[in-house]
Amino acid sequence: MKIEKLIVDFIQLRIEGKSFDEIAKALKTSKSTLIEWNKKVEVRNEIKQGKALAINTVVKAFAFDRQTRLKTLLELSKKISDELLSRDLTSISTDTLLKMSIANDNRVSEIVNTTFEFGFNPSYHTVGINEAGFFKMQLDE
């Protein structure tokens, strides 16, 4: 195999979480060679990007991206608010429901007030306004 192909295979195996020992056996290459390849910035960046993409794929598969989390938290916040308004508060203390509402609102705030970047070249776009002014968001790729 050519060295370039071995490096591509090395990167893929590192993305999959394989150890240097496992990769050395699989590629029939010395561990010290793998360590030298891993020192290259380009190789480390490829591994980092590959791992991030793999994680993003799993997150998307379970519909756990920011938009889904925000929607779920907002729906929960509405249910809590509706419950607070409709209850006589005999079975659950007002204090407990208010604490639940505040905790949920804080989670929503954390998501909404997060600054995000677009793509590999961070360029920001104003997408809304909050009490402190404009906030910026990154689109999922």
Can you give keywords for this protein?
141 residues, mainly alpha, 2 domains, two-stranded antiparallel ribbon, 6 helices, 6% strand
In words, what does this structure look like?
The chain has 141 residues and is mainly alpha-helical. The chain has helices at residues 3-15, 20-27, 31-39, 41-61, 66-86, 94-112, and strands spanning 126-130, 133-136. Residues 121-127 have low confidence and may be disordered. The radius of gyration is 23 Å and the shape is rod-shaped. Strand 1 and strand 2 (133-136) form a beta hairpin. The longest helix has 21 residues, at 41-61.
Topology (elements, then pairings):
Layout: H1 3-15, H2 20-27, H3 31-39, H4 41-61, H5 66-86, H6 94-112, E1 126-130, E2 133-136
Antiparallel strand pairs: 1-2
Quick overview of this protein structure:
The protein has 141 residues and is mainly alpha-helical. Helix content is 65%, strand content 6%. Mean pLDDT is 79; it is low at 121-127.
Give the termini separation. 34 Å
Please give the share of residues in helix. Answer: 55-70%
- Number of distinct helices: 6
What fraction strand? 5-15%
Helices and strands, in order, run as HHHHHHEE
State the domain count.
Answer: 2
Largest sheet: 2 strands, antiparallel
Oligomeric state of shown chains: single chain
> What's the β-strand tally?
2
Low-confidence stretches: 121-127
